[in-house]
């Protein structure tokens, strides 16, 4: 598929971003594109708002898999594109329009250029939340078409086009959403001694939690606790009865994630005593680390470099999260960064990845799968 064809698909998908498990238009668009392929070359199965697509091998003994995520984000787009999102306050600000386009490009290639092994393409919904990888893994279709290895990519705004980056072992962190709800006794601002102020309690808790990373996590490990929003109270002269904190936890090891959660829960219990309130801690979505299989990813990097398919750089681990980690927990494989050279980063309203990177990714993956599937 030529660059202009890939760019046209990407622009179509960019205009219809949908949130997790609401990707109905996206699924329909993918199905419409895939319908042009002969039925004797391809098998398609729906899974919720996602898809399993198998390109049949000539004499298959195993299945090689590739995953592309589908959902957009709750962001009002500010790119100025003539093909900007037509869905208000929704945007493909994490590159999933790129990821799906690349998968379609690879599929189109192998439908007309058969290889020995079966190739399985997973169009996965809800990567941004609430998490589609885990339930997809548990589906009957995944059990029917179990891969011997699985790969994926993610756009990297900071890398130039024509470059890919990855590494052995840990690439993306363990991540978890965090919600803390506090409830006490509200009252009149003039009589604070007759109430329990949840704004004060919440403020105290935010300060306390900063000590967890400094004093409860191994200094040779890394962790981040960020509280992104605090809401509480209803008027300036009323002592708040309730407060809600929302944030994220990110760690470089599963053990540190458990330790951080235990310490937060212990602090909330202490807060209940100190402020005579009730507290509830929840983790709406949590993602397992992306841990690349060393042998496979080193072989991939060497293959790409030796064949001049792209410039290869060795990445550092990042505190970003990706539910592809659950797939790598179960199956050998790897993820890599694809350079798209944007001045604005992931999840930014002005993210503008360069479309030339689409051609780079399709070239790299078709060559790599051809080498592994014959």
From TrEMBL:
Keywords of this entry: Amino-acid biosynthesis, Diaminopimelate biosynthesis, Hydrolase, Lysine biosynthesis
EC class name: hydrolase
Catalytic site positions: 69, 128 (proton acceptor)
Pathway this chain belongs to: Amino-acid biosynthesis; L-lysine biosynthesis via DAP pathway; LL-2,6-diaminopimelate from (S)-tetrahydrodipicolinate (acetylase route): step 3/3
Domain named Peptidase M20 dimerisation: residues: 179-269
S-adenosyl-L-methionine is among the record's keywords: no
Record field: catalytic activity: N-acetyl-(2S,6S)-2,6-diaminopimelate + H2O = (2S,6S)-2,6-diaminopimelate + acetate
EC id: 3.5.1.47
InterPro entries to which the protein is assigned, alphabetical: AcetylDAP_deacetylase, Amidohydrolase, Bact_exopeptidase_dim_dom, Peptidase_M20, Peptidase_M20_dimer
Biological role: Catalyzes the conversion of N-acetyl-diaminopimelate to diaminopimelate and acetate.
Family stated for the protein in its record: Belongs to the peptidase M20A family. N-acetyldiaminopimelate deacetylase subfamily.
HAMAP family listed in its UniProt record: DapEL (MF_01692)
Name the UniProt record assigns to this protein: N-acetyldiaminopimelate deacetylase
